[in-house]
Design goal:
Shape of chain A: elongated
Oligomer: homodimer
Radius of gyration of chain A: 18 Å
Strand content of chain A: 35-45%
Order of helices and strands of chain A: EEEHEEHHE
Number of helices of chain A: 3
Largest interface: A-B, 72 and 72 residues
Structural class of chain A: alpha+beta
């Protein structure tokens, strides 16, 4: 069992700070569309970032096991949230990965690394809404 | 429908950076127990922080509607992750809130604000594992 501990302080209005031992403070706010600040991370963005970051790190681990070398990896992600009769709900988190692998690597195998990562990524698996992953592979 | 967009760049090893328009870069790493750095946020911590931050902001919104004045609000949270036959899985996210409200406020009503927030918080509702909330109320 691993434990991930954070602490929060409210700074008044719709702003606060997230803290965790040894790391830089992470100030946050409501999203601007909910009376918050456009220059601070908000919980919705942090959720999307958590999924996206976990996908990379899980993919690196899968790639290592499969002896596939990543030359570069980047992604763009979007979380879509809608008003429902039960309140605001995430509908989908979509992650679009762009991957460059070493010359001679099978592009289909490289793409599959990311899809396998999605199956194992603990943050993606902690999310109720569909997490969709698309992958573009370049050969170096 | 609201959209929350992030972008990720891999920086080699188990590190990268999360970016989103107008906000400070958020460097991240795997957790130290998975070959990452202890001085950077990791996806597991970001997930817990997202839930915890969303709980505050939703509670502020509920409190405003119910005309209950928060004097201070802080919380400590922990996400528990375990190895399961399916891979690493979050088992629980527990949020312990400490709240101070104005003199003359009904403590039970103040506590209920946070529990109502948990029902409406979109990030808490986006998470599959149980999110448990405990509340300690102080009267100013």
């Amino acid at each position: 069992m691993w434990m991930y501990e954070t602490a929060l302080k409210w700074n008044g209005d719709a702003t606060g700070v997230e803290q965790t031992a040894g790391r830089a403070d992470l100030p946050f706010s409501s999203p601007p569309e909910f009376h918050g600040r456009a220059d601070l991370w908000n919980p919705e963005l942090l959720l999307v970032a958590a999924v996206e970051a976990c996908m990379l790190l899980t993919a690196l681990s899968v790639a290592q096991r499969q002896k596939i070398e990543f030359k570069s990896y980047s992604s763009k992600s979007v979380g879509r949230m809608a008003k429902t009769p039960e309140g605001l709900r995430f509908q989908e988190i979509a992650v679009a990965v762009t991957l460059t692998v070493a010359a001679g690597t099978d592009a289909a195998k490289a793409e599959q690394v990311v899809h396998t990562a999605e199956k194992y990524c603990p943050v993606s698996n902690a999310v109720k809404c569909p997490v969709t992953v698309s992958v573009t592979v370049h050969i170096a």
